[in-house]
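@channel sequence for tomorrow's demo:
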Amino acid sequence: MIIKSAEFIMSNSEVAKCPKDPLPEYAFIGRSNVGKSSLINMLTNHKNLAKTSGRPGKTQLINHFLINKNWFLVDLPGYGYARVSKTSKKKFQRFITDYFEERQQLVLAFVLVDIRHEAQKIDLEFMQYMGENGIPFSIIFTKADKLKPKAIERNVAAYLEELLKTWEETPKYFITSSSSALGRDEVLNEIDHINQQMNALRQN
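structure tokens (generated this afternoon):
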């Protein structure tokens, strides 16, 4: 997929106020400081489309970006400061769960994970939440430039092994680096492939 245009449309904290367009949406979410804004800028080939910051948790709203006039990239806040409820199930910012559970335009979520670290409890719990609610997602491993190829292979294998303790099969995953553009084509081609499938279904 060639990105011909990428424009910011709106930010808000209420799902009801999200764009009414029936265009497919791809949401990006992860723990604070996982490199989400840098990844979005790399994917769209825009240096400042998503605001990057050295301070984790900068994104506090649901941000919609219209890509190529035919799909939305949705930048969601990190879930690094989620609360634990009395039932000890993780509760994330209310509008994030509202978005995932109510937004009919959502096609796929990309859950970002820092490839340098072993599986974090909060990431695993978030993926569990997605699975329990039937929300399709893929994993994007970020910051691959920080590791050597063997370490990348080892860390990804360990992560997938951890997932298989509670999942029958692992979700699709992508290995990326915002600085080298590693994985850019693979992620964009996945989105393009899904969009083409949806268009074909609509035409039948």
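heads up for whoever presents: Confidence is low (pLDDT under 50) at residues 53-58, 81-91.
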